[in-house]
Amino acid sequence: MRLLRIVPDNTKFKIVKWRRFSYPFSAAYSILVLVLFLTVGLNFGIDFRGGTLIEMQSKAGRPDIAQIRSAANGLGFGEAEVQEFGSGGEVSMRFALQPGGEPAQQQVVVKAREAFAGTYDFRRVETVGPRVSGELVQAGTLGVVLAIVGVLIYLWFRFEMQLAIGAILGTLHDIVLTIGFFLITQLEFNLTSIAAILTIVGYSLNETVVVFDRTRELLRRYKTMSIPDLLDLSINSTLSRTAITSTTTVLALVALVIFGGTAIEGFALVMLFGVMVCTYSAMFVSTPVLLYLDIRAGRLDQAEEKVLSPVKAKA
Questions:
Q1: Which of 102, 182, 184, 227 has the most crowded Cβ, counting Cβ within 10 A?
Q2: What domains appear along the chain, each with residue ranges and CATH number?
């Protein structure tokens, strides 16, 4: 089993003191995310913007992107976004939402087939109207908010409020940094991105709760130990597990990025970034924040006594 250990046992890294660097870094990154969000914005996919997406594959040779763009713009539906992706002569065209409802969107597909069917195979055609795209934006946002609220309620009952707040702050930090990844790379933000963010929320909480559970255990065992030393001990005692979990997850995601194809490449890239952020956050953001939340063993005992007292009274 020792061959599987990435980090040796009984490490004594002083990780909490690195908050002097991790907090300014995270704050600067968050400010950058806010500025980019207000100035550049997310590269919303067709799920949220509405419009028509057409993916084609060349029947022979590499596609001529300039010629395709010129022909697509000449169809009379405004300027089209044309991109080559993959390695098999695949091309995607995006047309903006057309006035006139569903018949107008279908006309885009008809005209495109007439123009390109001779030299390209149509692999995927997707049309989203304004009503559907608006509902998807609302549903996606509501899903993320409800997930965070549900997690807060669970952690409130599972842990003391201070630990719940620390976990939520870490999760919000991971979401902000992930949104920053979308803003910087201009990776398309669609429903798959929402799924990736919700997955990252779960992974972030899993990483944080493991450390916090050890913190709660050590608070009762070492009631006279200083809080910074106790938090360092919590991180070090779970460091081997964190390293193994993160490494195996990263290896799987790297394989998906390389061999998974274009259909899941975006999801895998976001998850790869998210896993690294969650690991960083659990050690350098979520746990050190407990220093500022007045976490003490006495508070934990009082909180647990309040929960158990009604049960004891009934007994």
A1: 182
A2: 2-42+133-304 (1.20.1640.10), 51-128 (3.30.70.3400)
Let me know: does 136 contact 44? Beta carbons within 8 Å: no
**Nearest CA-CA partner of 220 in 164, 167, 159:** 159
Where are the alpha helices (H) located in the chain, listed in sequence order?
Answer: 19-39, 46-49, 65-73, 102-116, 130-158, 161-185, 191-221, 227-237, 239-259, 262-281, 297-314
What is the tens place of the pLDDT at every residue in 97-110?
Answer: 777 777 777 888 88
Residue 172 has which token pair? 């919000």
Full-model pTM: 0.76
174-225 confidence digits (pLDDT tens) = 999 999 999 999 888 877 888 888 889 889 888 888 888 888 888 888 878 8
As given in the structure block, the two tokens for residue 8 are: 């040796």
Cα–Cα separations (whole angstroms), residue 116 to 82, 128, 211: 13, 21, 56
Select from 176, 190, 82 the least CA-distant residue to 133.
190
Query: In the structure encoding, which two tokens stand for residue 19, read together?
Result: 């908050």
Are the CB atoms for 185 and 313 separated by under 8 Å?
no
